Amino acid sequence: MPLDTSTYDLALLRVDGRRWNELRRLDGQIRTQAAADGSSYLEMGNTKVMCVVSGPSEDKRRGQTSASTATGSNAADVAVSVVVAGFSSVDRKKRGRGDKRIQELQTTISKALASNLHTHLYPRSTISISLNVLSQDGSLLAALINASTLALIDAGIPMTDYLVACTAGSTSSYAANDDRADPLVDLNNQEEQELPFLTMATLGATDKVAVLVCESRVQVSRLEGMMAAAADACKGVRDFLDQVIREKGHKMVTEGTIEKGASMAIEIDA
Amino acid sequence: MPREAEPSLNERAFVVQALQEGLRLDGRAFDQFRGLDLKFGDHYGVADVTLGKTRVLANVSAEVTAPYIDRPFDGIFTITTELSPMASPAFEVNRPTETEVLLSRLLEKTVRRSNALDTESLCLIAGQKCWSIRVDLHVLSHDGNLIDGSCLAVVAALRHFRRPDTSIEGETLTVYTPAEREPVPLSWLHSPFCITFSFYGEEGEIMLLDATLLEEQLRVSSCIISLNKHGEICQIAKLGGTPVEAVSLIQCASAALTKGKELSTLLDQKLAEDSKRRDKGGLLAELSAENER
Fold first, then answer.
1. Which residues form the domain of A102?
2. For chain A, what is the domain count?
3. What span is annotated as the signal peptide, if there is one (chain A) (predicted)?
4. Which domains does chain B have, with CATH numbers?
């Protein structure tokens, strides 16, 4: 609570020295687990998450903890399970399996991915995604979505476009009705505690919104600005994810792990 | 695990085709609610919301307990939802379905986290005694749009509720029976309302309000916006589903504001009617311990 983001007005710099439209340092890796079908590791500032994808595999009874999209038998189920490590935040909090907040996260990620992936290509099968949160510092849902996108690409599951997410906040609280409020992007934990914010996931570089979650009180008039800022930030995240994939692809070709296909549309020699 | 019967292919094609031609099965406009009825029970704090064939009952109760150790100055406020097999065969007792988890999370975010009820006013003796306000939500019949109905029922029941009056003299806390002193309303800060939008079509270009169960099963994505009449958004939840243009979500927010104001007026009017009904011969003003200052 004893934080102070009110100094923002003085220098237009945020608590960690960023401008309003700057993302935190992003670091991503794919194919981190050799045994998995697809895996990734993503850092957005101090938020660190790991993702492992297995499948598409034959349908089996799913555990109760994983949320899945029951779309009938003619499309693959996307089962997501999120595990938040006890050491991930400052206070070690024991979270039960039936934590509703976690269940909501799982459902959100699962539904968002299911509409983006071409699940109809894998009837009667399950794509299971397990996400591990290693460190939390704000923008958790956004990091989880980005990490699962990376891992799904590694697993080679066809999708429409990258599903990228980012948070956006507003510098004024809901009570203050000042017009000068700036939107902020990619909030850290400190800022999330103080300011109204939303998490938005868009489809690639388009303005199509797959996920929009806002849990704080904010004026309706402020929504448009926040969403515009989030959409811009999502484009930045998309470019970053794309770069991670391309670099890994380039490395694998130069190392001779895979052969460069004749039909490969991507120019990886650059 | 029992599941809701899925609509057949023909039904699916028919409803979607009709929507594309601008028609709903029950002939409503796209932004029109079903017949909405709100009734209060004989006791304080019982609200019964009927929305077409959907029916939800909320009941508020209060008791004196010890506050949480980490929050000695706050009272306790809980909302419990119960989706029994009575409402739909897809619901089971003691096994929360996805619908139930999302519903209770949503009410939690809309009513509790947005500070609609001032929990500090529930504190009686700091760290020792406080009021625990509990809302029990029962879904009696499920025909779509549970969320909007439930939220209205919870807010209406809480605003209708009266807790026993109390006084503290020195170290002794007295809780008065309704016969001794007229019960007092809760300290209510703002009334949030949930509005659910359902999207249809390849790109989610068709937008419906107050979808029935059949329409809910066929939607490609949904967006729930909670706001109060002052235009403050308390919560937005578009949890996945087909991506929708950002512009249409902003349109949703302004449509939700209009609808929220309508619901707010309706609730105020119903509460006024009810208090008039209870106030036989204008005795209530005399019984009340409060005075105009």
1. 15-254
2. 1
3. none
4. 19-279 (3.30.230.70)
